[in-house]
């Protein structure tokens, strides 16, 4: 017991409880990380409104978010059902990322619309979502669903916990608790439409360039 100047006293038990309570409060603090705001990589904002009902529940949704890669806003998905981390070929080419040969090439079918494909390249992706800044090694695949997909390896390495009700992913990173929050179903739908429109624009531009090259060759003849 400690006797104070005013005649009151404090027990050691009380002091211990106070310090434990304080340290407990500090441990419970976490950094909640919402998706990155802004237009997706190489995508223009759509005009007009969407006549779709907005469902805020995450019951039928996998985790969709946005991240920053080399200063560009990119689409991100977290799916524990995928056995590898994946970066889309579009992302790698648009940002000029350096690839390396895959140490164990394999054949993949589930993410390709063209049937089986050989995965033989990897790329190191440095990305950020708010204050959460990380790097991940990904297999490069011509994927259309997202620019970056974090699969089972990322979840394993970060010891991630998934809340099925809120669809949030929580983990400790560099001593701080991080909680990644998903996009709403409406936001996911908007992003998917933007990405599809941009892909169609790129295909038209590609066909136009091929046509112009053909005409120039014919003109030279």
What's the Cα radius of gyration? 25 Å
End-to-end separation in angstroms reads 103 Å
Taking all residues together, what is the mean pLDDT? 80
Q: Kindly estimate the percentage of residues that lie in beta strands according to DSSP.
A: 25-35%
Q: N-to-C SSE series?
A: EEHEEEEHEEEEHEEEH
Spatial order of the strands in the main sheet? 4-5-10-6-9-8-7
Helix content: 25-40%
| Relevant CATH superfamily of one domain | Acid Proteases
Please, could you describe this protein's structure?
With 221 residues, the protein is α+β, with helices and mostly antiparallel strands. It has a domain at 30-41 and 61-186: Cathepsin D, subunit A, domain 1 (Beta Barrel), CATH 2.40.70. The protein contains four helices and 13 strands. It has helices at residues 12-28, 89-95, 152-158, 185-220; strands at 2-3, 9-10, 30-33, 63-69, 72-78, 86-88, 99-108, 117-129, 132-141, 148-150, 161-163, 168-173, 176-180. Strands 4-5-10-6-9-8-7 form a seven-stranded mixed β-sheet. The longest helix has 36 residues, at 185-220. 20% of the residues are buried. The model is unreliable at 13-24 and 43-55 (pLDDT under 50).
């Amino acid at each position: 017991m400690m006797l104070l100047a005013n005649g009151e006293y404090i027990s050691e038990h009380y002091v211990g409880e106070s310090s434990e309570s304080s340290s407990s409060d500090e441990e419970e603090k976490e950094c909640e990380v919402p998706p990155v705001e802004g237009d997706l990589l190489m995508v223009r904002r759509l005009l007009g409104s969407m006549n779709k009902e907005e469902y805020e529940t995450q019951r039928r949704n996998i985790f969709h978010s946005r991240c920053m890669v080399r200063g560009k806003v990119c689409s991100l998905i977290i799916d524990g059902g995928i056995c590898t981390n994946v970066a889309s070929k579009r992302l790698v080419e648009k940002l000029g990322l350096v690839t390396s040969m895959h140490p164990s090439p394999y054949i993949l079918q589930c993410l390709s619309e063209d049937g089986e494909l050989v995965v033989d390249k990897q790329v190191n992706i440095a990305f950020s979502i708010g204050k959460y800044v990380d790097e991940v090694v990904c297999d490069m695949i011509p994927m259309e669903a997202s620019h970056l997909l974090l699969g089972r390896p990322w979840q394993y390495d970060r010891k991630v916990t998934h809340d099925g009700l809120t669809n949030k992913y929580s983990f400790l990173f560099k001593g701080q608790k991080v909680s990644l929050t998903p996009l709403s179903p409406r936001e996911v739908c908007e992003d998917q439409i933007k990405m599809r429109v941009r892909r169609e624009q790129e295909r038209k531009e590609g066909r136009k360039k091929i046509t112009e090259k053909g005409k120039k060759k014919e003109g030279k003849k």
